[in-house]
Amino acid sequence: MKKIVTILGARPQFVKAAVLSRVIKNHHQIEEVIIHTGQHFDANMSEVFFEEMEIPKPTYNLAINSLSHGAMTGQMLEKIETILLDEKPDAVVVYGDTNSTIAGSLAAKKLHIKVIHIEAGLRSFNMKMPEEINRILTDRISDLLCCPTDTAIKNLQKEGFDNLPIKIVKNGDIMKDAVEYYSQISAEKSSIIADLDLNKNEFVLATIHRQENTDDVENLKSIFAGLEEINKDCKVVLPLHPRTKKILEKNNIQPNITLINPVGYFAMLELLKNCTLVISDSGGLQKEAFFNKKNCIIVREETEWVELVENGFAEIVGSNQTKIINAFHKFKNSEMDFNLELFGNQVGESIHQSILILLTK
Ligand code: UD1
Q1: pLDDT for 303-318, tens place per residue?
Q2: What residues line ligand 1, using a CB cutoff of 6 Å?
Q3: Cα(178)–Cα(251) distance, rounded to whole angstroms?
């Protein structure tokens, strides 16, 4: 049996790994060992996902968090290398664009272990974002790039990846499988809509955590001023990321909206299904909005998921208060047809197949 080591660390990676781990378990062809770097560590940022989504318990938890980018990545690199020398896997699987992604791929590559990057080829073309640096470097040192969209494939082609000994496959977006699989279960298991006394289509779901927004207090104030204005018309519910919470407290910003603690995947799905629309700077939530037939107002200057904007499902507004409010009025009563095939189907199965082909070569 072939062996892979999966490196996880941050919330969106738990969602993606839940899908592939289930497929791997069902097929009995690959043994999976999980390393949790510890990047996200609060129970409601980590544990809840493992429990709800039945992700296998990590064999290793490195407890590396709350450090600068260099220190965090460096410590992860050192510890992951030690484990890989011991486990001797056939390949390492990394997801997305976090510090855990680059640490895992770099440790593996230097040991001549194959690297599989899931959610490869995405670009924001903003090199100030730590995520952009992480994803470009990870793509370049991978052996198999599992791409979610045609745009991702084109991005790689433009960068000359066709001339490199790297296998590039379009599998689709693995988060779509998660939404489909857990949608029914979340309705049974989560009571968040009743708990918060919310009504269907009568609230906006918002999240803000990107460094480019949280590290610029003027941007942050402008975003929250926009959300407060919208809240007068339609209740705004915002599960607060620990990074944003710290910065709001430090700057004594107390927005008059419904702030709640970070929620698990089931509650998030229920909020998505029942909201009017989404306002967010998250990458994953933009697509989760689409999968749940909701428009998304993107509080960033660019997006990696350009097909959402090109097809009118989402709009980029940056941190500009007026643009946020205008986009809300544009989308609040819109009844768009979301039945467009943008992100593939049965993505977990497709990625599993691609991994098997790579490992049996
Ligand atoms: C990371 C990823 C980002 C991803 C996001 C999802 C990088 C560079 N960024 O950003 O791509 O979109 O995760 O959420 O890897 N914190 C807590 N409790 C937790 C988790 C974090 O208090 O459970 C604190 C940390 O101590 C830190 C801050 O929140 O001060 C930010 O966490 P960090 O891991 O640096 O990155 P994220 O902003 O979560």
Answers
A1: 999 999 999 999 999 9
A2: 10-12, 39-42, 45, 65-66, 97-99, 130-131, 209, 242-243
A3: 37
